[in-house]
Specification:
Structural class: mainly alpha
Largest sheet: 2 strands, antiparallel
Number of helices: 11
Radius of gyration: 18 Å
Helix content: 55-70%
Strand content: under 5%
Number of domains: 2
CATH topology of the largest domain: Four Helix Bundle (Hemerythrin (Met), subunit A)
Distance between the termini: 44 Å
Number of strands: 2
Order of helices and strands: HHHHEEHHHHHHH
Shape: globular
């Protein structure tokens, strides 16, 4: 059984700031590709229960995202809240400014990402994957490889999240989603380079192949190489 990313993302919010965290969870689902352009969010009653917030709070969060251009509400028999076909472009905040704001948090996030995602690749390769899990991983790989520049970051995030999903651990999937969101603003601030994308796609294929063939050591090694390259690219643009 595939876990899941929606279970990991649409988990109960912490007490204290339910509106802000509800907005954050919904944005996480959209920006990481858990709910793609044109897709419908879960029904309001179900989503409020999963997030453990009131329907009033959920409606306020959805209204905020509607105003920001991420979702739209439709009425009628087949109505609901749908992710817009075209998402707002992230602001072009200079990478160095974002890194300065993050300060030591950047290295913390990169270290956490490395530990979580290399471990996820190894754990996924060590499992006996179901047909559904294998198909899910291959589909995310193919969609990422065919992605346009506009969609690349989102589908890249979705593929990395899929690796965590097929470990069968919702907690790990949630952690990977959280750390990816910490880094996404910085990743959005650096240019997408055709050569780098081609290289990343080759590395993605090596990672997925190692997982599907049940080689934990190779999966961990391939993910480590891939993440090291991304970290080096970030540091190069921040130097």
């Amino acid at each position: 059984m595939v876990v899941q990313a929606d279970e990991a993302v649409f988990r109960p919010v912490r007490a204290g700031n339910p509106f802000e965290e509800t907005v954050e969870r919904l944005l996480q689902a959209i920006k990481l590709g858990v709910v793609g352009p044109g897709d419908r969010l879960p029904p309001e009653r179900e989503l409020a229960a999963r997030l453990s917030v009131s329907r009033v709070t959920l409606r306020e969060a959805i209204h905020a995202l509607t105003e920001a251009g991420y979702v739209e509400s439709r009425r009628g028999r087949y109505g609901g809240t749908f992710v817009n076909a075209e998402l707002p472009k992230p602001p072009r905040t200079p990478a160095k400014r974002i890194a300065r704001d993050l300060a030591d948090g950047l290295e913390d996030a990169l270290t956490l990402r490395n530990v979580l995602e290399t471990g996820a690749a190894e754990a996924a390769a060590a499992r006996e994957l179901t047909t559904a899990e294998r198909d899910h991983l291959r589909r995310c790989l193919d969609e990422n490889a065919a992605a346009s520049l506009t969609d690349y970051r989102r589908l890249d995030s979705r593929l990395h999240l899929a690796v965590a999903e097929v470990t069968g651990s919702p907690s790990l999937t949630s952690a990977v989603a959280d750390v990816r969101m910490r880094l996404n603003e910085l990743l959005d601030a650096i240019p997408l380079l055709e050569r780098n994308i081609a290289h990343s796609n080759v590395q993605h294929a090596v990672i997925v192949t190692a997982i599907l063939t049940g080689d934990p050591a190779a999966a961990r090694r391939a993910m480590q190489e891939h993440l090291s390259g991304t970290a080096a690219l970030l540091r190069a643009f921040l130097a």
